[in-house]
Sequence to fold (68 residues):
Amino acid sequence: MDNTALVLVIIGALNWGSIGLFGVDLVATLFGGQASILSRIIYTLVALGGLWSITLLFKEKIPVRDNG
Fold:
């Protein structure tokens, strides 16, 4: 679930980057406009991925041992 959430957050970040840099909403462009049901589903999934990713900030970190 963590990896899925991170992929969704990356998609959202790239979409916001394209809006900020080029004025192009890639999700809307690819899926029929901001109001289309498919775009709204993707926006919702990205938002849920962002909410899930908040939990990653509070997970206990497992130390990595150097076997060298």
Remarks:
- Residues 31 and 39 are 6 Å apart (CA to CA).
